Every structure is written in structure tokens, then in C-alpha cells.
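Project standup — Tuesday

K.O.: blocked on the structure for the chain from last sprint. Re-posting the sequence here as requested.
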Amino acid sequence: MGSRQVTSWHGKNITVAGLGVSGISAARALAGLGAVVTVVDNGDGDAHRARAAELAEQGIEVRLGRRPDGAHAGEVLPEGTELVVTSPGWKPDSPLFAAAAAAGVDVVGDVEIAWQLGESRPGRKAAPWLAITGTNGKTTTTQMLASILKAAGLRTAAVGNIGTPIVDVVTGEEEYDVLAVELSSYQLHWAPSLRAHSAAVLNLAPDHLDWHGSMEAYAADKGRIYEGNTVACVYNVADRATEDLVAEADVEEGCRAIGFTLGAPGPSMLGVVDGILVDRAFVENRQKNAQELAEVKDVNPPAPHNIANALAAAALARAFGVEPRAVRDGLRNFRPDAHRVAHVDEVDQVVYVDDSKATNTHAAEASLAAFESVVWIAGGLAKGATFDELVRKSAKGLRGVVLIGADRALIAEALARHAPEVPVVDLERTDTGAMLAAVREAARLAEPGDTVLLAPACASMDMFANYNMRGDAFADAVRELAAGKA
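H.V.: unblocked you, prediction finished:
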């Protein structure tokens, strides 16, 4: 996939696909540079119309809903379009993109626009990008990296798939020394000219295959993050697929492959020795020497998958020249977002942990592995996932399971095959009181020293608006349980 660099935006006819946050950001920035911008979106609700009215005040045309000919606005390429800028969620096989391909018009995403605008901004040097992707852990690792960079005294921000739209950051007045950039597979698919200073792929597991079409296509888009790296390609020693992506990447001369591992690191790796995070990559004589960076207890929470996140963040920071003390201080200062292996309460010597963000099997497996004896609350929308491998790997640590949600039968079947001795409670309820019932059933199954873990391995939209609301419902239920024990 290629893309022509835009040397001048003035007078260029650009179609922006999608009236979400990133689409609006791109439309405004490009219109401000003199482009003739048209936004298309298939929606036509009150919120869409309100956003369209705001953009119209800036001279941006917005086409919504269904056209008189029956086609949706987001399916038809506006006449004269010279470039399409898509929001991340639009699938590659969308009719709009087929029309663009037929007309010889490039399609790029807001990340590509941000990259081009940052590189070409007059009078200002572009801030280098330290980029992060992976199936799980992207947001946490990006935030850890930003915390480390700030502890080093650098002007930075966590951007991309989180926080402020990246176009707004690179075109804003504030200047940065370096950016910590989280990138999804969607965003990477549409960012052909992106060239990061250094980048990491944390892990690879089947996800979003309905969008990408195959695991191979998904992995290839993730691997785009390494293209053109100048200093370091960071990979997960425990996940061979990430190292394979490094081997396939076309990087700048002198760019190094840097591994991270939960074990003792070899040369050109970061790892763990006797509870210490150590660096054998960015030190003199790495064949013999290692640099202490932080202690495992400095990582919050110190679950294995989160220690891996910390090592990846540390590798990227060290690639940028950050001193060891800043790695330690940044990890100590970091506080994870809600619903990510969050301790809620302890009731009758049973700990209750909210990992509602574990919306796929890979994330749930990492969460389950962090605890010795678990009563697992799972279920929701499976999104085409299968659960045999997850259950097989996690069975020995299960005290019991409480199943909720639309696709709970898929997990129940995997449990019957691979963990038939584990007691299972199957809750058919999907009303607002279902989570309270699930927590009470989990408490009944749990014994002192156990952990009741919400790690659903599924999306939430069958019962809740999002994973945040699911996690909040779990926390509320735990608090009600605790109040009843008082």
C-alpha cells in the first residue's frame, strides 16, 4: 500500500469519511490549511446534525444519511475528490474506498495526516514518535511510556488511539520533545508513510479478524509500525510472531531489534533478574553488563503481563536515551486506568478484581495467569472467538466460574471439555441486577485467599454500553456485598 505525500493542502479537494472525533479533527485541520473539505457519514441522527452544523460554520460541507438515489452518503465518492481521509473503524472493503480505488484516489487515515502535517510544519521540528501496538496492553504501555518520559523532564503526551486526537496535537501550539503514540491495527492500515523513531509490538492474538479478513492481514498491519524505524524495533521474546514482524520490516540502517522478556535477558534485551527490571540492550558491553532500571514492585499492578508492558515501555524510553532513574520514577508515578486489573475490595478474605477491559481471550488469559486461585466471572459478546485454548491454559487456577451474557454457552462448552471438575454457575439473566447476582454467586464459590476476577474475555455490548459500565456494575456489586457483610 502506497500513498503520495501532499506538498500543499491549499485548494485540495479532500473527502473525510466519518463524523467522529478523529474525522472532525482531521476535517478542521485540513480546512484550516486551505483544503476544500467534504465530510460523509451514513448516520443522520441529532448528534450528527449538530456536529455538521458546527463544521458548516468553518465552511466544511457535510453529507449525511441516505441520498435521494437511495445510496448512503458514506458510500458515494464526492465528485472531484483528490484524497480520502478515513476514520479508523471504516472497513477496507467499504464502497467509498472501492470508488476511490477506481478513480485512482488515495485513502489514508488521520494518523497518516498527522504524520504528514507534523513533518511539513513550517518553522518547527517534528517531535519523534515512539509508537506502540499489540492485541493487548497498548494503552497501559503508552501511558507508562509517557510517565517515564515526563520523569526524564521531556515534554511529551500520550496520543493516537487514546487522549487528544493526534492531528490536534501535531498542529497545536504546544511543542513536544517526543510523543508516546498508541496505534491500533486500523490506524496502521491507513498510515503508509509513518516512520517512527522506535516502535514496539507487544503481542499478537486473533482480534478484529472481521475487519482485516485474516490473521495474516491483521499481523501485517500491526507490523507496519516497524517500517522505517530509525533506532529500535522492540519485540516480545515470548511471542515469536512479534519477532518475525521485525525480521520482515524494512528499517533504517543501524536500527536494532530489542527483545523484552519476563526471564533473564540475553544481550540486546530487557528482562527480570531477582525481582529487578534490567537492561542489557542500551549499555556498554551488553555481552557482559546489565543496568538495573527498577524493581518489580515499582510496577502497578505487578501482574506478569503488566511487567511485560513496563519492560516494553522502558525499552522505548531507553532507545530515546532516557536515564535509568527516570524509568524507575516513571513506573512508580504511573497509575493504571480504571477496569484494568483494578483491586476493588476484600470481603471475607476474598479479593475482588475488576479487569472488565479484558474483552478478548488473550487479555483474559493474561489476567487469569496473574492469580493463583480464581473464581472467574466471564461472558458477553464473543465476536467470533473460541475459548478452548483459554480454558485449557487457565483450568488449573480456577476455583469456580460464573457465566453471564449472550455467548456464555461457548465458554460453558469449553469448560465442559477442558475443566469438567470446575463448578460453573450459568446466569441466564441480562437485566441490570445480573452483575450483583454474579458477584453473590462468585462469593459463594470463593474460599479465603481466592480472587474473584471479572475478566470477561468478551465484549460488553449485549448487557452494557461499554466495558467501563460493566466494570462499574461489578464494583457497585462488590461494594453492596461488602456493606451486607458489615
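K.O.: great, moving the ticket to review. The first strand starts at residue 13 and ends at 17. The chain has a mean pLDDT of 93.
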